Amino acid sequence: MLNHTSVAPDGQPWRITVLRNAQGMVATFMDWGATWLSARIPLSDGSVREALLGCATPSDYLQQAAYLGATVGRYANRIAHAQLNAAHITLAANQGEHQLHGGPEGFDKRRWQIVEQSESHVLYQIDSPDGDQGFPGQLIAQVRFTLTDDNSVDIRYHATVDKPCPVNLTNHAYFNLDAVHGDARQHQLHIQASHYLPVDSQGIPNAALRDVRGTTFDFRVAKVIARDFLQDADQRAVQGYDHAFLLAAEQDSPAAILLAADGKLQLEVLTTAPALQFYSGNYLDGTPAREQDSYTAFQGIALESEFLPDAPNHPEWPQPSCWLQPGETYQSNTCYRFRAL
Predict the structure, then answer these.
(1) I need a labelling partner for 276 at 20 to 30 A (CA). Which of 69, 125, 188, 194 fits?
(2) What's 325's DSSP letter?
(3) Alpha-carbon distance 124 to 157, whole Å?
(4) Structural domain tally of the chain?
């Protein structure tokens, strides 16, 4: 664990954890936001490829609004009108009248405590008090990052509450598998999902789940992301892909596979979550960058495992309930497996 010389907003140093495996892969994390900073994967030709977008210094993460690599909660994605309608609860809004990724002071903007760490894993915990960003009850959440010897970053989320509350934790890493991080829409993408959720220009669901057949959202056979880009009204509403895909109930194979433009590095996403948000980096322009002054739009791909957006207000959707009850345990596991080809 290394401490950067600058300090976080709470006056304490950033705590950086570096994990290494037997294959030579290196994954780096930070306690602020329980943030995944870097994933460096050795290729068969002896080169090493950085697979994540990131900032040059820890303090740069405070100057970006893209949630780069952050652990997001209490509720990832959007809650319409910042309302939990069934419980008559108003949340803190931070995207116009809506709530995005847990509110204006979500988990991405907090220091998580390091509970334990080793050469292969780090376990973070956060204590969210009753009323935090409007959410009911005290919530205690943990996230464990493990780097395995098959070049996987295994993420395990765990949470408990003392009042009924919707819980939806995810990681907001942006992937670019190319040697030089250019336009990530040149990657090939496969998503094993038969339905996606249309949204309006604010990312709020505005229609029922839609069959991907015959649409630009059909990724059941891998295709280059750019092929059908902005070719329909659903995409144009949000300047590209920023949509949730409903996964099969039993997902024992990858929910998604992302392939570098040169075919030398592949990412497989396996998850127990009911949905996967595919975001093509439509609004990345101006985000502070590790290798350059700032990123441009479409330089990274986010594949966020989660419940469907605004699910607390849609109990009719075909997925498990996102409401966590006292005495229950929230658990969600997602594995990002990198393969050199």
Answers:
(1) 125
(2) P
(3) 10
(4) 1
